[in-house]
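The following record pairs a protein chain with its ligand, zinc ion.
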Amino acid sequence: MSFATQVKQSLCRINLKKDCCRRALLYGILLFAVDFDENRIRFITESDASSELTMKLLYDLYRIEGNLYVTEKKQTDEFGEVQKSHKITVSARADVKKLLFKLGYENGMNPGINRSLFTCENCRVSFLRGAFLSAGLITDPEHSYHLEIPVREDRIAQELIEMLEEAEVSAKLGSRKGQRMVYIKSSEQIETFLGYIGASEAFFEIMNQRIVKDALNNANRIRNCDTANLSKTVSASKTHTDAINELIKTGRLELLPPELKETALLRLEYPELSIKDFGLMFEPPISKSGVNHRLKKIMDFAQTK
Ligand SMILES: [Zn+2]
């Protein structure tokens, strides 16, 4: 599963209680889908969770049954898994008309991003999450930092950039092969965006990798410092954070006793600290051997599958 698909799968697990937010989420998915006009509405994704969620929202909110086609791609991904393409189409005239009407796109009217659909504080968060689920691309942070959302119209692109600015994310308008897109380049901005739309697991993963990368760069720069010790701290820290992220991803973090869970989450917050300094972050502080003992238990637990 690609990094982008992983992020999307985790976003689909977020449970929305309010109908206004669920509508805003579906609106984000549909507005940034491949087709969104009076002829048809068509959404294509590699993520089975996104496809399931979209089908469910269409039915729950508007009693519309989308047509779902799943095809297997010829190429496998980097882990040898078969990739699938899920294509959801709404093409029955009455259904398309009903959806466009409900979303404020009546008789050729084009409200850009129709903000009148956002009724509570969280609606815009859901909408941006939907936009990312629909069309968002993100590179694996281990290789580079780049996030983009392809957009069909300039007006929507501009309004998307404005909405992102309001969320303190600075994005730019670009194009590739004639396709317009809104993109975010810096790691901090990508983190802010992912945090905003609720992709905190992915957010932590990016953050840890950046901290480890920075620490390794520093270790190379500082010649008079004890670089060997720092590298040791960094590699131990990377082992910890990898294991903890894996526990979060598989939902096993919840199985840990409270004090180990607290230690794991705190370690993600302070991966760069030595064991001794990390111990001081607890309330009350705990000793180096106490910290080592807890981390060892977490690592042992992570290894038993
Ligand atoms: Zn809402």
